[in-house]
Amino acid sequence: MNPFANITKVNWIAVLAATVAGFFIGFLWYGLAFASMWQSLTGITPEAVEGTNMAVSFGISILATFVAAWGLAVLVGKSPSASDGAMTGLFVGLFFVAAMFAQNYVYNLNPLALWLVDAGFVLVMFAAMGGVIGMMKKPV
Predict the structure, then answer these.
(1) Phi/psi of residue 137, each to 5°?
(2) Residue ranges in the chain assigned as alpha helix (H)
(3) In angstroms, how far is CA 36 from the centroid of its own chain?
(4) What is the Cα–Cα distance from 81 to 70, expressed in whole angstroms?
(5) Whole-structure pTM over 0.70, yes or no?
């Protein structure tokens, strides 16, 4: 299987919908559910965040989420169901992204709790994006 052969043969509406879903999950995960824990684990304070250009941060985040959704759409292909898409997303999140996070976090001496927060986000986000993509099959 050569995924590059199908890189433009995706449902772009599904990619955009998955991007919105992924970005929204990030907002819920890091902005609400795990905000204080994540800030404590990273040492990032609200004052430090105020000194950043949030438009640039959000722009990069949206672009990265779009690229991830696009790649996932290539792998999901013409998935027969939302659950197959979600399982593909979960597979990618676990076996590629979370695994590489673990390697990176070990060498950066990050705490296990930070990996659990970040890897948990990746698993939920990729599963949701895959589900959205699988649900929105490309018209024939």
Answers:
(1) -60, 145
(2) 12-26, 35-42, 46-50, 54-76, 82-92, 99-107, 112-135
(3) 20
(4) 18
(5) yes
Q: What is the pLDDT along the chain (140 residues), one digit of tens a residue?
A: 788 888 888 999 999 999 999 999 999 999 999 999 999 999 988 888 888 898 999 999 999 999 999 999 999 987 678 999 999 999 999 999 999 999 999 999 999 999 999 999 999 999 999 999 999 976 55
Domain count, the chain: 1
Spatial neighbors of 92 by CB under 8 A, at least 6 apart, are 72, 75, 126, 130
5 domain residue, yes or no: no
* DSSP secondary structure of 8-40: T-S-HHHHHHHHHHHHHHHIIIIIIITHHHHHH
User: Is 58 a member of any domain?
Assistant: yes
What is the domain range of residue 66? 10-135
Contact 26, 125 (CB under 8 A): yes
How far apart CA 66 and CA 129 sit, in angstroms, is 10
- The answer to the question of residue 117 being in a domain is yes
Pair 131, 86: CB distance under 8 Å: yes
Amino acid at 121: F
